[in-house]
Amino acid sequence: MKLHLIFGVLISVFVLEVAKITAIDTQADPAKVDIVFVVDKSGSVGKKNFEFIKNFLEMFTEYFPVFPSKARVAIVSFSTYVRQEFNFNNHKNKECLRRAIKKMRYTSGRTSTGNALEFVRAQLIFNTKAGARENVRKIIFVITDGRSNLGVDPAIPSKKLRENDNLTIVTLGVTNKINQTELHRIASSSSNVFHLKDFAALKNLTLLLKNDLSSKCKNGDTVMDTCGRRCTCKEGTLINCCRLRKEFTQLTQDERIRYLNTVKTASTNLKYKKKYEQLLTLHMELFLRGINMKEFFLSWNRWFILQYENLLQQIDCRVTVPYWEWTLVAANPFGSDFWNQGHGFGRNGSPPKHCVTTGPFQKGKWSLIRSAKGGCLKRNFSGRFPDAITLASLLTSTSDPKDFLKFEKQLRIVFHNEVHCQIGGTMCTRSSAAAPEFFPHHAFIDKIWSDWQKKGNSNKFNTFFQKQKERMPATRHRSRDFLDLANQPDCICTEYENVVNNVSRILEGLTLPELLKIPRLPLPLLSDNATALFHTSSTELKEVSKLQATVAPKQVLHEESLNGTDAINLGFRPNDVFNAV
After folding, report:
1. pLDDT at 12
2. DSSP string, 374-413
3. 165 SS3 class
4. Secondary structure, 3-state, 37-86
5. What is the pLDDT of residue 146?
6. Where are the domains of the chain?
7. Could you tell me the CATH superfamily of domain 3-215?
């Protein structure tokens, strides 16, 4: 069979098989598939030819949307012994998958094809602990250069595998040494059996794949992938893909509803609820055990947001955790569209128990996790938040990497702690992570840290974290693993999209003296509730008070002097900002 025909048929078989919707789930996503590659690395293959196989795998998997909620890929190799290179859980995106394929090592030995297929049947393709999913299409792709000469007859496990209507087996034989009869006994049908005369033909097939991919996007272009990540096109391959976290009130109505519905699915659907509750309970258990103290506050918070986002992406890979930039409505935070009851988080709680009775998380339709004692979500709105000038002043006054502790202390105590208890209710308890608004607030705190890190590499990779030797509480990671948003564990890159706002843009370019001259409302006072909840020490409170005095306005406005929606929300007059340039 000619190479271009083999190429076309190979792609067609996979596309057609993936597109089949099973009778079990008529609403199935056609891209939802578990794929296992069973790869021969016996002595007859040789080290050089094994590299050709790896190149083929790397190029072929580019055709599939590799995400937890879409295509999952596992690889099993075999020679004398069977080796699971990685299961469905190990690599959640193409970036990590590419790296893992490159790291596969050749071993030589005999050809135990049947043993490999039995391993796939017994321990991988149906094993939920290995990341296999129920009621999704399953494809096994066997690549071999010869015939089985060790272990169980491949036809035996293949027959058992084919009893599953959801499963398809494809075989690709390379060289004329292959046993055609064996390949046909393994495959689901004769149309799923392919043959190449030698490894040079496999190399050429890989080149055809590469050329086909190159036609799908222009080199150097920015491209959005299936799950909404921003990527760069390089010879048809999407590289440097980053998840985008956007400001909640800047999302489209459809994007808002998608996020809120995904949170509701994670918190109510039995398939995800256990992991959801375990994750949020962890925050409650560690509340006073380091995660809200200077050592791990920022790094652990970044890790925690990522775990939550990863869970949501198992449901819908387009969903990322949005942030709420409340500094732009700091003087009137509870009038923000963030609390919209139709496509937002719902309004304030209702006295006397302050249960939320509007929006997607209202009493009777949604409840808190068991470790938070269930029941209704509560809110008790009060006060103002730190404004955009205070934030710009914080970033400007502590821009020197040596001032990290001054930056961290104010960010944690003034910006993080205080907003928790101004929202009140559930957010002002140790069970705060159970409140859906927790994550947009924490994402904003993480964005502020990210903005500070962008001031230089010494800010990003600050020595405070580099010197830490212990792991972050209840994780296998150290803080330094999460200093670079573009290079987080599991090959995850994240970006925060800035709000398009003239006021913010101008504030970023002003010096500290220029910022302090802008008339604005006085800084909000620190609350006793937040101090008590987070066990803030008297020493830290004194230090923060001194630091806050350095960013306090030189000219204080009164609320009645603010006219117009923008001024009432911001806590200062936009024209005063424009005139400060």
Report:
1. 52
2. SS--B----S----HHHHHHHHHHT-SGGGHHHHHHHIII
3. coil
4. EEEECCCCCCHHHHHHHHHHHHHHHHHCCECCCCEEEEEEEECCCEEEEE
5. 80
6. 3-215, 248-346+384-579
7. von Willebrand factor, type A domain (3.40.50.410)
Give residue for tokens 């169980």. 152
Report DSSP state, residue 121.
I
Residues in the chain with pLDDT values less than 50 = 14-28
What's the pLDDT score for residue 27? 41
Alpha-carbon distance 217 to 235, whole Å? 8
Pair 243, 494: CB distance under 8 Å: yes
In this prediction, residue 16 carries a pLDDT of: 47
CA nearest neighbour of 530 among 450, 415, 452, 447:
415
Residue 8 is predicted with a pLDDT of 58
**Residue count of the chain:** 581
Q: Roughly what angle, to the nearest 10 degrees, separates helices 270-285 and 297-315?
A: 170
Whether cis (ω within 30° of 0) applies to the bond prior to 154 is no
| Torsion sign across C-alpha atoms 118, 120, 125, 128 | positive
Task: Write down the pLDDT at residue 99.
Answer: 95
State the pTM of this model: 0.90
Q: Contact, 187 vs 171, CB < 8 A?
A: yes
Q: What is the pLDDT of residue 236?
A: 86
Provide the residue type at 245 as one letter: R
What are 131's two structure tokens?
Answer: 């990341």
- Which of 1.25.40, 2.60.40, 1.10.1280, 1.20.1300 would CATH assign to domain 248-346+384-579? 1.10.1280
User: What's the confidence (pLDDT) of residue 212?
Assistant: 87
- Beta strands 193-196 and 82-86 are unpaired
Beta bridge partners of 522: none
Paired sense of beta strands 237-245 and 494-496, if any: parallel
Q: Which strand (E) or helix (H) includes residue 222? A: strand 222-224
501 conformational bin, left if phi > 0, alpha if psi -120 to 50, beta if neither: beta
Please give the DSSP secondary-structure letter assigned to residue 488: B
- For the chain, the helix, strand and coil percentages under 3-state DSSP, each to the nearest 5: 50, 15, 40
Instruction: Enumerate helices (H) and strands (E) in the chain, giving the number of each.
Output: 22, 12
Tokens of 532: 């008590």
Alpha-carbon distance 561 to 573, whole Å?
9
Same fold, 3-215 and 248-346+384-579: no
Cα separation, 194 vs 183, in Å, equals: 9
Residue pLDDT, tens place only, 365-417? 999 999 999 999 999 999 999 999 999 999 999 999 999 999 999 999 999 99
CB within 8 A of 209, min separation 6: which ones? 7, 56, 59, 60, 62, 63
Tell me, what's the pLDDT at 15? 45
Instruction: Name residue 190's amino acid.
Output: S
| Chain centre distance of CA 240 | 14
Q: What's the token pair of residue 165? A: 């209507």
Give the whole-angstrom CA distance, residue 239 versus residue 237. Answer: 6
Neighbours of 215 (CB within 10 A): 8
* Residue 25 CA to its chain's centroid (Å): 26
pLDDT value of residue 23: 29
